[in-house]
Specification:
The chain contains 9 helices and 14 strands. The chain has 315 residues and is α+β, with helices and mostly antiparallel strands. The strands form 4 sheets. Strands 2-1-3-4 form a 4-stranded antiparallel beta sheet, with helices on one face.
Length: 315
Amino acid sequence: MKSIPRRSFLKFLAFSTVSPSLFPAIVNADACKVQHPIMPPDNRYPGRCPVCGMIRPMWARTWITFSPVMEVSQVCSFHCLADWALKSGQDPEQVMLTIYHHPEKSIPAEKAFIVMGSTAAGTMSPVSKVVFAAKSEADAFKATCGGTVVDYPRALLTAKVSVAQENQTINKRRIEKGKILEPKQEDNCVVCGMFPARYPYGKCQIQTKDGKTLHFCSTQCLFAFLGRQNAYIDDPVTPLIVWVVDRSSGMWISGRTAFYVIGSSKVFGPMGHEAFPFALLEDAKTFAVENDGKAVVYGDVTIDKIVPQWNYKTE
């Protein structure tokens, strides 16, 4: 008897355990294999997730929009929605969920039927959440691809429960794949020339549109660079993703959705005055109270707010 390849055998097991009958799973298997992410990227769907940096042209099937919460109004997935809700301390309102099989359409979250935990590919989480506008469609999809039909509140709650563990896994994978580059011992800060690797809670980096990584020893140097690139490099770059280190956990987090404590005269970083980054607003507020600072969002941070009477050096 001819042996079955391991991957094929695992697929067989997956289909057989999530369907009442194996035969319908084989007949309708294509329903579980919708192209996700979309390749090549479909530029009809503009946008970038500020929480994780992923782009809508690829991840449009699971895109979510909502009324702005501290400058954020769109994310790529339930994972990032839950992440931002926990970080900001606010559940988003007027949430619109994209219909998985029709990425050009979205519906109010309260009207959605969500198949959670099917064999279809999800985004940022091993537990996929596939959105449908009709319960009959969700039930039919579940019969073939497995999972459970739930409403929006339950899907969001499930995402919140798993987001911390998923973030640890995602962070490790980003470093392994080079999406975040740990500074080497010999890497220099673009602004001051110091060695970012020596400052585990100060280090930060910019990944540019043309694929470069710029290392910084501190947020002071990061925001000095962002304020006037031509003071430090000859050819300006387009920042694609900004990574900073959460002061509470030591994990890399998106600089654009971090909360910063500025104005402290009690705590200092590698270059003195800093904008201390935090993943959670509550952590930032607590640190600010304890150290006579102010908690702000990324868009409110400038170098002159970090360093009193800041001046760029001129030749």
